Amino acid sequence: MMEKTTPKKGKLLVFSAPSGSGKTTIVKYLLEQKELHLDFSISATSRQKRGDEVNGKDYYFLSSEDFQQKIEENAFVEYEEVYANNYYGTLKSELERIWASGKHVIFDIDVIGGLNIKKQYPEQTLAVFVSPPSVEELERRLRFRQTETEEKIQMRIAKAEREISVSGHFDVILKNYDLENAKNDAYRLVSDYLHMI
Questions:
Q1: Worst-scoring range by mean pLDDT, 3-12, 97-106, 175-184?
Q2: Which of 102, 109, 164, 175 is the most buried (most CB within 10 A)?
Q3: Rounded distance between C-alpha atoms, residue 133 and residue 138, angstroms
Q4: Is 87 helix (H, G, I), strand (E, B) or coil?
């Protein structure tokens, strides 16, 4: 019987932050830097699509029932019920897909999910917490988006305060006070980490 060869495991780059901190912009910038050999881990979620989001590109959009079925099948590296019946998670098949292509995995992920990945793959993961200048600035950014109700904004602010309180569990806190500086700092962090033996 032939032994199945598994692809060499790449590294995992976790970017977590409260909503509105700029982590998505930073991750998109890093993905554009082809020399880093990164691919985006597409999360699964049970929430509704927003704006022009595309299934299989921005997220894998699942119903709550489908998401719970995948939990029962042990298909996730990590998952969390972020709000009532509003799940997010990382499918094991995503890591396998990216590693098989010879690339490293980059995550734009919830704080709890990011810490769970670090816990499961401690030797392979760089966990970065993207810190906003203040909770007040975060609220201003969320309002500027004009994509959510007042109730949702208040929920996100309360959640952000909890998330900031656990930022010390990450390997690095990346301050996003100025976006261009934050992108350059992120590039240096990732490049240095990927070149470590």
A1: 3-12
A2: 109
A3: 8
A4: strand
Cβ contact 12:94 at 8 Å: no
Q: Residue 148 in contact with residue 83, Cβ under 8 Å?
A: no
Are 188 and 42 in contact by the 8 Å Cβ rule? The answer is no
Residue 133 gets which letter from DSSP?
Answer: S
Model confidence pLDDT, tens digit, residues 127-149:
999 998 888 888 888 888 888 88
What's residue 188's pLDDT? 97
| Tokens 């600035």 belong to residue | 137
On the question of pLDDT at 8 being above 90, the answer is no
What is the set of domains in the chain, with CATH numbers? 12-194 (3.40.50.300)
Letter for the amino acid at 15? F
CB 11 within 8 A of CB 100: no
Q: Residue 116: which of 83, 84, 82 has the closest Cα?
A: 82
Q: Is 128 within 8 Å of 189 (Cβ atoms)?
A: yes
